[in-house]
Amino acid sequence: LSALVDLLGVPILLGIVSGLILLAVPEGIRNVLLIAINIGWLLFRDLVFSPGRKFTGLKLVSLSGDKVTLGQAFIRNILLMIPFVLVIGYIVEITFIAAKGNRLADGWAKTRVVSA
What we know:
Helix content is 68%, strand content 9%. By secondary structure, the chain is mainly alpha-helical.
């Protein structure tokens, strides 16, 4: 449920609202801004606040139990930041969550989601 909210619900909502706000902006600039908004959301979600994790009583921590660093948040979301790869990245990450209970990139970033 947390992944559905944070990996699908919020990004779709942000994309629609941002896209409508930026409708008059030239396409190339709009695309760069939408990518920046997506990256900003992913980092904000892992560093500051995640509505999906809050709703489900979960939190993201490093494997040592400390707060996640900017570098860890970046690595954890790399598959979701790269244009043209992010659709596949979302599918891979959601598949890993469904099958194993954690994201593929959690291993790369040395993070995990635990009960709050």
